[in-house]
Specification:
The structure holds 2 protein chains of 2 kinds. By secondary structure, chain A is mainly beta. Chain A has strands spanning 5-7, 10-13, 19-24, 31-38, 42-50, 53-56, 65-71, 74-79, 88-95, 104-106, 110-114. Chain A is built from no helices and 11 strands. The model of chain A has no long low-confidence stretch (mean pLDDT 92). Chain B is mostly beta strands. Chain B is 0% helix and 44% strand. Chain B is built from no helices and 9 strands. A 5-stranded mixed beta sheet of chain B has the order 1-9-8-3-4, with no helix packed on it. A 4-stranded antiparallel beta sheet of chain B has the order 2-7-6-5, with no helix packed on it. The chains are: A mainly beta, B mainly beta. The A-B interface holds A 4, 33, 35, 42-45, 48, 56, 58-59, 91, 93, 99-101, 103-109 and B 30-32, 36, 42-46, 49, 87, 91, 94, 96-102.
């Protein structure tokens, strides 16, 4: 199995630009999570999907952030417009079961730098 | 958020056992305790999880206190590859899977 695949691995953009991060979960997994990691705040859960439906988006910072999961094999996290404070590593993770008991498999992350 | 308390950092000599503590005093009876670790420049990696009984796998052992308010991750023989940030987490109700800042383990050759 290829594991969770994220793209791009690195993104450098200017303030105000739109950023789209992509994630392909492990085949057969029914839960998908987007996390953001910074030195100041550590690893924060942004949003959680179960069977392609957003279940908990309380961690999404503001309206500039949106996430979609059009099918079981693909998800996007979009930031529009981007700001320097959005600079972070964004991780996608997938799980075979509900989050309380299932093991999370993380991708290698997308490092975003907003100038 | 469901929060756990861990020491910021710990050190261990190579080939020695390591006991990484975690306090989770607000855990409820149905919440699983999970441990993950994050190697430099990588995403977090699952280590082990448990509910009430002690658990063993190829990576580590998990010792859970009888009152479930604390747990200890045990690495039986630390290697240089075990140097990482270790996260103890659990989920309750509709709360986030809160990772906190974890324990940075340094392994000394």
């Amino acid at each position: 199995d290829a594991g969770v695949i994220q793209s791009p691995r690195h993104e450098v953009t200017e303030m105000g630009q739109e950023v789209t991060l992509r994630c392909k979960p492990i085949s057969g997994h029914n839960s998908l999570f987007w996390y953001r990691q910074t030195m100041m705040r550590g690893l924060e859960l942004l949003i959680y999907f179960n069977n392609n439906v957003p279940i908990d988006d309380s961690g999404m910072p503001e309206d500039r952030f949106s996430a979609k999961m059009p099918n079981a094999s693909f998800s996007t996290l979009k930031i529009q417009p981007s700001e320097p404070r959005d600079s972070a590593v964004y991780f996608c993770a997938s799980s075979e079961r509900g989050r309380n008991t299932g093991e999370l498999f993380f991708g290698e992350g997308s490092r975003l730098t907003v100038l | 958020d469901a929060k756990t308390t861990q020491p910021n950092s710990m050190e261990s000599n190579e080939e020695e056992p390591v006991h990484l503590p975690c306090n989770h005093s607000t855990i409820s009876g149905t919440d699983y305790i999970h441990w993950y670790r994050q190697l430099p420049s990588q995403g977090p990696e699952y280590v082990i999880h448990g509910l009430t009984s002690n658990v063993n796998n190829r990576m580590a052992s998990l010792a859970i206190a009888e009152d479930r308010k604390s747990s200890t991750l045990i690495l039986h023989r630390a290697t240089l590859r075990d140097a990482a940030v270790y996260y103890c987490i659990y989920v309750t109700g509709a709360n986030n899977l809160f990772f906190g800042t974890g324990t940075r383990l340094t392994v000394i050759p």
